[in-house]
Write a structure and sequence with these properties.
16% of the residues lie in helices and 21% in strands. By secondary structure, it is α+β, with helices and mostly antiparallel strands. A two-stranded antiparallel ribbon has the order 1-2. Strands 3-4 form a two-stranded antiparallel sheet. Strand 1 and strand 2 form a beta hairpin. It holds the Pfam family Imm32.
Length: 86
């Protein structure tokens, strides 16, 4: 199966733009030795789009998406996806 995920173009003057699939659900939990991220199909596709958005040419190191507990994700902790240097 091939799936196409459309990402918003990165424009330095506008910053990062993220979009969500309708009905997304994402859960995150942490134990002493594991981080667990669970999501439905819409949540997984949304996370993939966020990661692809951060991976675009021109996105600066340190730029990130901050998923806030009990807002974007069902969790007691926030989840931050951040771009680092190649």
């Amino acid at each position: 199966m091939e799936q196409v995920i459309v990402t918003p173009d990165y424009r330095p003057d506008e910053g990062l733009r993220f979009s969500w699939d309708e009905g997304f659900e994402i859960m995150a939990s942490v134990t002493r030795s594991e981080v667990l991220i669970k999501a439905n199909r819409a949540g997984l596709t949304s996370l993939a789009r966020h990661l692809l958005t951060l991976a675009q040419e021109g996105v600066s190191d340190g730029m990130h998406v901050h998923l806030t507990a009990d807002q974007e994700i069902e969790s007691e902790i926030d989840l931050i996806l951040e771009r680092m240097a190649d």
